[in-house]
Amino acid sequence: MFLLKQNLHRVKHSKISPTPMLKTMFITAIYTIGVLSALYAALLAPERALTATIASGLINGLATILLVIFVDLKVSYLLTTLLMEEVVIIH
């Protein structure tokens, strides 16, 4: 755990691009909007609650695919290099 804290402190002072974190925030926003909009749609039209729930699942499936394609590989590579005490630039 100490090694991780020490390496995270180094990240603050390195030249690592914030792009992976911004992509993660954007995709997490898609997850949040998908769930909350489905709940709100079910509240507005209770007779269409099943349709809203299914739409939420489709939106979450799309967000999962985006997360795997655009974020997971770069973030896992970044964490691996930080744990091995190497600092890289990821765009």
Short description:
The chain contains three helices and no strands. The protein is mainly alpha-helical. The chain has one domain (22-91).
Mean pLDDT over the full residue set:
77
- How large is the radius of gyration? 18 Å
* Helix/sheet category: mainly alpha
State the domain count. 1
Task: State the total count of DSSP E strands.
Answer: 0
The global form is elongated
Number of helical elements = 3
- Element string (H = helix, E = strand): HHH
Keywords summarizing the entry:
91 residues; mainly alpha
What does it look like?
The protein is mainly α. It has helices at 2-12, 19-44, 49-83. 7% of the residues are buried.
Q: How would the blueprint of this fold be written?
A:
Layout: H1 2-12, H2 19-44, H3 49-83
